[in-house]
Every structure is written in C-alpha cells, then in structure tokens.
Write a structure and sequence with these properties.
CATH architecture of one domain: 3-Layer(aba) Sandwich
Number of strands: 20
Structural class: alpha/beta
CATH class of one domain: Alpha Beta
Strand content: 15-25%
Number of helices: 21
Radius of gyration: 30 Å
CATH topology of one domain: Rossmann fold
CATH superfamily of one domain: P-loop containing nucleotide triphosphate hydrolases
Largest sheet: 6 strands, mixed
Strand order of the largest sheet: 5-6-7-3-8-9
Shape: globular
Length: about 650
C-alpha cells in the first residue's frame, strides 16, 4: 500500500541540477536507505517529501491522513523548554495545550486554585477534554517511559546523547506512518548508535533514512535508494549486494563512455579536415557529430572521486610508542588508569568507547600535547607524526582552502614528486572555484576532506586520527579505508564507525568503566566475538551522558512530580470510556461502508482510504483498551469511596 509517491521531481540550484525527473514510491513496511555523495541532494529530497521544500517541477502524492515525522541531523536547541514540552511539540496544536497544562501543573503544585494560573489551568483542562487531548497525553507518557526520559528536565541541561534521544521521542510520539531520518548517528558514540539501531528496528512504520554508517544500513535497510548525479534508482538488495552491483554497473558505464569518447575523437578529426571535405561528405554525419558533442556536454562525470595518496616518508624505528602506568583524569573522574601499551611500526589500532571516556585524551597524551598525571610515555626513533583532530582546530576559518593547505606555495612535494596545489586539491574533489572559498563557509564534509588533504600532503610515518569519518560520504569512506590499509606507517584512530574499524584496524583499545583500557586483537566484530559489548548507555552513571542526569532530586521534588503526574493520569482515565465509545462508533461506520455492494471494485476511489482508516482505528482502539485497563488497575487513580 503506497504511503508516498514522487513523480518526475526536478530541482536546480543556480546551474547545479540536484534532481532530474526523480520518481520514488514508498510503501507500508519499507525501510529505505538513501545513499549518494556529499552535496548530491539527499537532505533536500527528504525535506521535499516532508513538505518543507517544494520541487521546481513534478508532484508529491501523500496518502490522506498520512503521519510523517522528520528527524533532522541537527540536535534540538539547548533552551529552557522541558523534555515534555519538546516531545509534545510533535503533536502540533493539541501538544501545545498539553505542554502548557503540564507546565502549569508542575509549577502550581498543590495550589491549583491560585490566581491567575489556576484559572488558566481550568480553561486548558476544559479545552483538552473538548478536543480529546487526554488520549494524546497517553502517547507522551508512553514514549517518556519507553525511552526513559526525564519529563521535567530543561533541554539546556542535557548532553548530546540525551538531546538526540529527545529528538527521536518527538519524532515517534505521534506514531508516524513514515519516519524520515537525516544522518541520525552523527557524532554519536557506539553505545548510543547501538541503542538507536534497536529503537529503529522496533519501529513499526516505514523508514526513509540517510546515513554514512554502513553497519546501520546493513542492519536496517530492505532496499537502497541511490541518488547519483541527479538521477535516482532503487535496488531491492541489502547494502553489500548493492555495492557489488553498483560497481559492476559503473564498470560497464565507464566502458560505454570510453567508446563514445573514442568515436567523438574520430569525428572531431574528420570535421577539422575543412569545409570542402564536409560538403563532399554526408551532411547527416555533421548533424550526428553535433548530437555527440551535446551528449558529451550533458554527460555527468562518472569517475569524479577523491584520489587520496599519502607520503609515507622515512620508516620509523620498530618501537613507535610505549606507555607505562599512564594514568589521567579530571577532578574525581578517572579517564585512564594504569595503562601499559606498546605500539610497534605497522600497527593499525582502533580506539572505541562511550563519549567522554577519554579516547581523545589518550591521543593527546600519545602525540605529546598533554602530559599524563602519572606514568611514562616513551617515543621511538625517526617519527614523523600527523595528527587529525575531530574539532578541525588545525584549519583557519578565515583563510581560503588553498592557503590553509599550502601557505602560498604553488607546488607541493609528495613522495618526491612536485604536484601543483590546484591539481592536488582536485583529487580531493575541490574545484578551481572552490579552492578560493573561505573555510568558514565550507560544509562539514568539505572541511573534513581539506583536513585530510593537509594531513596527507606531509611526510609521515605515524597517523593519529580522531573521528576522521565524520561527514564523509560512503564512497570517500571506502577510499580512505583503502588508503589506510595500504599505508606503510602506523595508524591510531578513534572512530564510532563500526564497519570502518572492521575494515582497517588490526587491534582495538576499548575504554571501559573506571578508566580501564583493554586491548583486543582485530576490529569491532572481533571484539564482540571475544565477549565484548556495551550495555545500555542510559543505565549507568559511569558514562559522560548519564553523568549529566541527576542521581538525587531536591527534597520534596519527587513527591511533587508524582502528584502532578497522578493528576494528569486521573484526567486521562476519566476520558477513556468516551474515547472508546467514539472509536467503536467510527469503526462500525467504516465497516458498514466496507460491506456495501461494489466497495472492493477497482474503480472505487475511496477504497484504500477507508481500509487504511479502519486499520488505524482498530489499532488505536486496541491500544486505548490496553491503556484503560492499565490505568484502571491502579489504586492511586481511583476516586475515593
């Protein structure tokens, strides 16, 4: 059953063709991953389906009554709104009423008759009852419980992982038929990514999502939607099968283009023989040449990709770094405790753990930017170190791309070869026009590529990389993997990309509780097979994310919140019988329509809409009964005898 159908969508920005007659149908139960290079229009396409943007041409059909939710790659604002208010915003106008009622009930406490808020509370209560808003409050309560969120906590007190969790709750609260997600794993650690993956696997609606996390794609996607040079194609395969078929298709297309170019070259040579020769030959051939030229101009470049290379420099000594008894922390928190580690030439070591556990701190200690509180770090000989930082602090935002790379030089010396700076930057997908752009206006992916270009332009035999995969498209990720696999030096990298770790590293350092750092042979999956694994990122007070949550509340705070919560649940329980009766009446009317002669005929335009509504009402009625039974069984919600 189709939920959304896009037909012949076209969109251009300036001279860039983003969408070129793109069509896509999203059906119930679909889990589609939208893939493509950075800047190809993936986020734009999501916003067109959501209704936030309009295409230049074409149409978007959405099933009547369709509920769509959009989870942006940007985190919610850290402002004074409470978690309850942000989640309620996912329910539009009725959600605003509930959020206001919730706020007033919280701040009035036992003084519900106090003026003037007492009068406003009474008016809100009446409006909520008139608009059947208490049934929506049950949805908010359900999602708060499911995701274990603190309803009254201000957003400005939450860390990144909790903000992402609240954003997901807001997207899910209205039980959408279609959920759109734009890079949902951005800057999340592995425990949080695993948690998010579990939530999405349990989601009952359709998914259309954009991500560079290949492990997430392989786990969730039932089909791959490829947006490539303005065109769209659907591959009903898992991700790994899609990659094999994509590469084969591009090989075939590349051979076809090469043959077309050879033919064009022959015709160009013929046309240069002069006007007399052209007049004596077939005029149709002249027209055909014009058509070939036009096709060549319109052909989109298939093979434009980053062509990264490194200058491995001189080999280091066999011993690269040796850490003995290294301990470090801040305040009373121990990040690294009694770490003994030997790094040898050629090692490729991955470092994983929850955010805030000390991974970046360890890199800074190894590179010499930070002195440990205790212990010794010994360096080997002939080291040439390149350090890639996740905060892009090595880039000057006010200087342009070429100046950040070359400091005014026209040529770079890489592996004993002199390479022009423009040509070198073109291998990292920077056009001649783009290299004069200030860094501060570059996208995240462009900044990442520039930092990689800087890193690889210098002789180095020790690469230290902190989150190198952020904002890179999948194809650039795959190329970076190949480069690191072939790199002759030593690599240390922090990453939350599970597939990247599996493909690159030979051993893994895992940050555990209490500052313990354990070393395992192999990548992420190898660690899991050896008994490793992260628990629920929200169930322990040891991680940075959960340290942001209060362990103890102020005196009387818990009791006050429980009284307010009980009042809301009592109001909801009182409205349940009327809600059930209303749903049963609607379902009976729908069944009567469905029993009419000719209802199931192919030319009945209302058939699909009525069937979809009947299914939705049945689900809501079942859930309402379940909720009613649960609330009715609570003794604290019963009226006094």
């Amino acid at each position: 059953m189709p939920l959304v159908r896009c037909d012949q969508l076209c969109l251009s920005y300036s001279n860039d063709r983003i969408l070129n007659r793109v069509s896509l149908q999203i059906d119930k139960g679909d889990r589609l991953c939208l893939v493509g290079r950075n800047g190809c229009g993936k986020s734009t396409f999501l916003r067109i389906i959501f209704g936030e943007l309009a295409a230049d041409d074409g149409s978007v059909w959405r099933r009547e009554g369709l509920r769509i939710a959009f989870l942006s790659q940007d985190l919610p604002d850290r402002d004074e709104r409470t978690v309850y208010q942000v989640i309620a915003a996912g329910l539009a106008a009725q959600g605003e009423l509930l959020a206001r009622y919730h706020y007033l009930a919280e701040h009035l406490g036992d003084h519900l008759g106090e003026q003037p808020n007492g009068e406003e509370l009474a008016r809100l209560q009446q409006r909520i009852e008139n608009e059947d808003g208490w049934s929506l409050n049950s949805k908010i309560e359900t999602i708060l419980t499911r995701l274990q969120l603190p309803a009254d906590r201000p957003m400005n007190e939450l860390s990144g992982g909790w903000l992402r969790r609240v954003a997901l709750a807001q997207a899910l609260v209205n039980e959408p038929d279609l959920l759109l997600l734009d890079e949902p794993t951005n800057h999340l650690d592995i425990p949080m990514i695993q948690w998010l993956e579990k939530q999405l696997r349990e989601f009952k609606g359709a998914l259309l999502f954009v991500t560079h996390d290949r492990a997430l794609i392989q786990s969730l996607a039932t089909a791959i939607v490829e947006l490539d040079r303005g065109s769209m194609s659907v591959w009903r395969d898992d991700y790994q099968t899609y990659v094999r078929k994509r590469d084969l298709r591009r090989q075939v297309e590349g051979r076809q283009h090469a043959e077309a170019d050879r033919k064009l070259a022959r015709e160009e040579q013929w046309i240069r023989q002069g006007i007399k020769a052209r007049r004596s030959r077939n005029e149709g051939r002249v027209k055909a040449l014009g058509k070939m030229r036009q096709e060549r101009r319109q052909r989109l470049d298939l093979n434009v990709t980053a062509r990264m290379q490194t200058d491995a420099g001189e080999s280091s000594g066999k011993l690269v770094k040796e850490l003995s008894g290294v301990t470090h922390g801040y305040d009373s928190t121990s990040l690294i405790k009694d770490l003994d580690l030997t790094i040898l030439r050629g090692d490729r070591i991955g470092i994983i753990g929850a955010n805030g556990t000390g991974k970046s701190t360890l890199l800074k200690i190894i590179v010499g930017e930070l002195q440990p509180a205790d212990g010794v770090v010994r360096s080997g000989t002939k080291l040439e170190v390149a350090y890639y930082d996740q905060l892009r602090e090595q880039l000057d935002p006010d200087r342009n791309v070429v100046d950040n790379l070359s400091d005014g030089r026209e040529f770079l010396q890489i592996s004993n070869r002199s390479i022009h700076v423009v040509g070198y930057l073109s291998s990292f997908l920077f056009s001649p026009e783009r290299i004069r752009t200030p860094v501060k206006v570059l996208s995240g992916g462009e900044r990442n590529r520039l930092l990689l270009a800087r890193l690889f332009s210098k002789p180095t035999n020790l690469l230290i990389m902190d989150e190198p995969t952020n904002d890179l498209d999948v194809e650039t990720l795959e190329l970076l993997e190949e480069l690191l696999i072939d790199y002759a030096g030593t690599v240390l990298l922090v990453s939350h990309d599970r597939a990247f770790l599996d493909n690159v590293v030979t051993s893994t350092l895992v940050f555990e509780e209490g500052g313990r750092v354990q070393e395992f042979v192999g990548g992420y999956q190898d660690w899991l097979r050896q008994g490793g694994g992260f628990g629920d990122p929200f169930s322990t007070a040891k991680t940075k994310e959960s340290r942001d949550m209060p362990i103890e509340q102020r005196p009387g705070e818990r009791d006050r919140q429980e009284r307010k919560r009980t009042q809301l649940l009592q109001k909801e329980l009182e409205t349940m019988p009327d809600r059930i009766e209303s749903l049963e009446d609607e379902l009976n009317r729908l069944h009567q329509r469905m029993s009419e002669v000719g209802f199931y005929s192919a030319d009945n335009p209302d058939r699909e809409t009525i069937l979809a509504r009947a299914s939705a009402v049945e689900e809501e009625l079942t859930e309402t009964y379940r909720r009613w039974e649960a609330l009715d069984a609570r003794s604290d919600l019963q009226p006094p005898q």
